[in-house]
């Protein structure tokens, strides 16, 4: 190999020729060689942040999940990052054993032989992004839960998914996946995640409320365990617990016997259910009639409010009479350009107030609703002074 | 979907730390011997800690930079059953069936510092009487 028998004196002579001031140099020199089997050393360089390095040092893994058509993502326990390949015209030499200046021996110095493992012009960068969760609904719709009695019928032969199954199919971290499952009101039944049939859920909710009335309990203080342990419960414990968690909040009450776990039924969530019940499958509902019917359908003591229907229903104030229709955000595309296209196809001009609940979930880490609108919409002012947004591009 | 892990083998002494040297452009050899096996050059440090590299006829002055985001050097884990795993899963667009498992990538080293040489190389002019370089 060329120059293997090089001496410190030879290296110093070259330095002198280069007009370097030897008195200002550390006496040791590292002679760099390109390793013989450099061509076999195939590596990938990935830029990580310090918390990921610590995560790996502790023995944990980073999961890389790649969909056929999409970019690959890297997931930690709670976040998702897009993996982007970057090319550079610079040569990046990797040295396993280079000494930093403070590690060089003093005194007369010596010549150290160091090898370059390989040279790269490519590295991978990570950029935090929204997890890709739309696929989850598609998967879970293959087998929707309508009650234990129907599990073996011909409508329930579709595939069922465990958490591990889902993590191998969805580009998301575990925490983000579980969050989305909660949002979709999916129940963990028999080890599998299941979407619950809307009408079935309504029946369970009604049963809970009837039981509360029967027992003279209060909606604000449903004794969880008492309810779940009742002997003649018509629904499985898991399902009742799930319904309580979807439509109520857990609370620990300090009572004179000790503490007790209770559920506080959420007026907003219950009213929202009843509204969806009325709106589903109807198309457009006369707003005035809807408001009256809705008010009459919710449990005594609960108050309806249109605020509860943000991201769930759309009101057309311009039509005569005014109408309301079911328009859930969960049914819309997850990709930002597609989402905006669908929104503008539904309605040409949107006020900030109306559009916000339908784009809020699109915000990436540092984005705001305002910056999304700047990117995807064009602002204008109506004759009456209202500020509205419409599409920047032709609608497909 | 393709799924695999990036792991750091837990060894005594922890994960090795490597250094990166960043040079502008490409390295070439004067003859046709190709790069591997050749001596690249000499790396000196000034007493102030500044790196200087002598490559061929060039003098390059650089600086030590602590990376804001460390690099992980990854190598593919060798599959135990020697199956030909020629698809590189880091490049997406794999035609994989639902949830195909492929090799994990292991962290061979972490790079927290680099020596960056951005200055235009200063050529070394050979004076005829020096010999034995």
UniProtKB/TrEMBL annotation, chain A:
Gene Ontology BP, a term: DNA replication
Keyword Zinc set for record: no
GO cellular component: chromatin; chromosome, centromeric region; Ctf18 RFC-like complex
Keywords annotated in UniProt: DNA replication
InterPro entries assigned: Dcc1
Superkingdom to which the source organism belongs: Eukaryota
Family: Belongs to the DCC1 family.
Name recorded for this polypeptide: Sister chromatid cohesion protein DCC1
Organism field: Branchiostoma lanceolatum (Common lancelet)
Gene: DSCC1
């Amino acid at each position: 190999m060329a120059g293997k028998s090089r001496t410190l004196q030879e290296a110093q002579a070259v330095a002198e020729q280069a007009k370097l001031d030897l008195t200002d140099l550390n006496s040791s020199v590292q002679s760099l060689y390109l390793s013989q089997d450099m061509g076999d050393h195939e590596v990938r360089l990935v830029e990580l942040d310090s918390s990921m390095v610590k995560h790996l040092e502790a023995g944990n893994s980073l999961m890389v999940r790649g969909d056929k058509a999409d970019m690959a993502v890297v997931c930690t326990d709670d976040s998702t990052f897009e993996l982007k390949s970057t090319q550079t015209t610079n040569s990046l030499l990797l040295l396993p054993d280079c000494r930093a200046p403070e590690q060089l021996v003093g005194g007369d110095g010596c010549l150290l032989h160091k090898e370059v493992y390989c040279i790269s012009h490519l590295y991978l960068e990570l950029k935090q992004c929204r997890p890709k969760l739309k696929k989850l609904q598609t998967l879970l719709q293959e087998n929707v839960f309508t009650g234990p009695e129907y599990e073996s019928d011909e409508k329930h032969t579709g595939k069922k998914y465990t958490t591990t199954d889902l993590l191998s199919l969805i580009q998301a971290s575990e925490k983000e996946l579980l969050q989305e499952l909660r949002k979709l009101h999916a129940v963990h039944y028999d080890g599998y995640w299941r979407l619950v049939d809307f009408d079935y859920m309504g029946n369970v909710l009604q049963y809970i409320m009837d039981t509360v009335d029967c027992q003279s309990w209060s909606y604000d203080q449903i004794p969880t365990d008492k309810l779940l342990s009742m002997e003649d419960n018509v629904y499985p414990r898991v399902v009742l617990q799930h319904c309580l968690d979807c439509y109520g909040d857990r609370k620990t009450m300090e009572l004179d016997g000790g503490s007790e776990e209770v559920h506080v039924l959420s007026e907003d969530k219950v009213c929202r259910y009843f509204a969806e019940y009325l709106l589903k499958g109807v198309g457009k509902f006369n707003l005035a009639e809807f408001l009256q019917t809705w008010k009459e359908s919710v449990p005594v003591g609960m108050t309806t409010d249109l605020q509860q229907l943000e991201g769930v229903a759309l009101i057309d104030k311009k039509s005569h009479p005014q109408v309301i229709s079911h328009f859930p955000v969960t049914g819309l595309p997850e990709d930002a350009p597609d989402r905006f296209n669908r929104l503008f196809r539904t309605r040409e001009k949107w006020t900030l107030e109306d559009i916000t609940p339908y784009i809020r979930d699109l915000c990436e880490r540092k984005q705001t609703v305002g910056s999304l609108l700047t990117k995807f919409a064009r602002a204008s002012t109506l004759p009456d002074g209202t500020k509205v947004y419409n599409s920047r591009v032709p609608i497909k | 979907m393709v799924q695999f892990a990036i792991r750091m083998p837990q060894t005594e002494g922890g994960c090795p730390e490597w250094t990166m040297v960043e040079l502008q452009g490409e390295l070439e050899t004067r003859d046709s011997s190709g790069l591997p096996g050749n001596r690249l050059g000499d790396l000196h440090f000034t007493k102030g800690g500044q790196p200087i590299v002598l490559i061929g006829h060039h003098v390059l002055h650089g600086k030590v930079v602590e990376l804001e985001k460390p690099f992980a050097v990854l190598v593919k884990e060798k599959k135990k059953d020697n199956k030909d795993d020629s698809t590189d899963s880091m490049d997406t667009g794999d035609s994989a069936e639902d949830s195909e498992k492929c090799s994990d990538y292991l962290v061979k080293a972490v790079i927290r510092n680099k020596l960056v040489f951005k200055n235009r190389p200063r050529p070394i002019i050979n004076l005829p009487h020096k010999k034995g370089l």
